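Work through what follows:
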Amino acid sequence: MNGAVRFSLVFALAGLLTVSISATAQETPGGWGPLEYLLGEWVGGGGGQPGQGEGEFSFQLDLQKHVLVRKNFAAYAAANGRPAFRHDDLMIVYREAGGAPPQAIYFDSEGHVIHYSVTVSSDGKTIAFLSDAAPAAPRYRLTYVLTGGHTVSIKFEIAPPGKPDAFSTYIEAQARRK
């Protein structure tokens, strides 16, 4: 092989390697698609029935990128004769085999355990966690909407027992990436 051919081959391989590295860098880090915009640490505030509060949450990949783990806390100041309090929760988002949509399980410091189905809007900007309807239990919906490159709006809604689609807003908040 002469020098010009060898140089052309090396140049072509270097170009192919650059394209391959670029494509790999653009792939999603855990194969979670639109849910990945939630990855990272967030700080926010808002209010609703529990009062005005501030808090932080994070979404992190775990178990070799097989689950997303959300850790959250919200602190509420004393108001209207109610003492200050803190709410902590943990949610694990997972995928079953066979390409089924993601599911989530939620635990909090008040003893709640909630199973959610996860849906993503067609534009990828809205992620909704919706609990199953049960005749004698409330139904919950937690929604994240991407509002900017580093901001989301959050809404937590509750439907009363026996009225699974009659959601009322319990908390609305805004968060920004740290």
The longest strand covers residues 53-62. The chain has two domains: 1-30, 32-177. DSSP finds one helix and ten strands in the chain. The two ends are 55 Å apart (CA to CA).
